[in-house]
Write a structure and sequence with these properties.
This protein is mainly alpha-helical. The chain has four helices and two strands, in the order ααββαα. The protein has two domains: 54 residues; 54 residues, no CATH class. The chain has a two-stranded antiparallel sheet with strand order 1-2.
């Protein structure tokens, strides 16, 4: 005897139960599981990125501050700056120099650091 008949699902009710079960299985297979895998991948990427930032800060690896003019290939300048706040200060100083038309060679990452506060 069929399991559907034993469960009392014969005729149109049994057919509807099979169709609904199949639709749920397809939705689970092609929508829910891939969405969960995508969410896991995104969480893993964010975790690795956060660990990289923490490691860079803890091990005092320098941040690269880079400036280049759009449309002019080869005209590029970069500074290696230790510390997140110090790199932010160098970025601000580079922006001010670019807006003022000052040469970028005058910017020193150690001079831009100044006292923390």
């Amino acid at each position: 005897m069929s399991p559907l008949i034993e469960a009392g699902l014969e005729g149109p009710t049994g057919c509807l139960a099979v169709l609904l079960g199949s639709a749920l299985l397809l939705a689970l297979t092609f929508a829910v599981l891939p969405a969960l895998a995508l969410a896991f991948d995104i969480a893993l990427i964010l975790l690795v990125a956060a660990a990289g930032v923490v490691a860079r800060v803890l091990f005092r690896r320098p941040w690269v501050v880079e400036a280049h003019e759009e449309g002019r290939l080869g005209e590029r300048r970069e500074w290696l700056v230790i510390g997140w706040r110090a790199s932010g200060r160098v970025i601000e100083e580079v922006a001010v120099a670019l807006e003022s038309g000052l040469p970028l060679e005058t910017i020193s990452p150690t001079a831009a650091v100044g006292p923390a506060g």
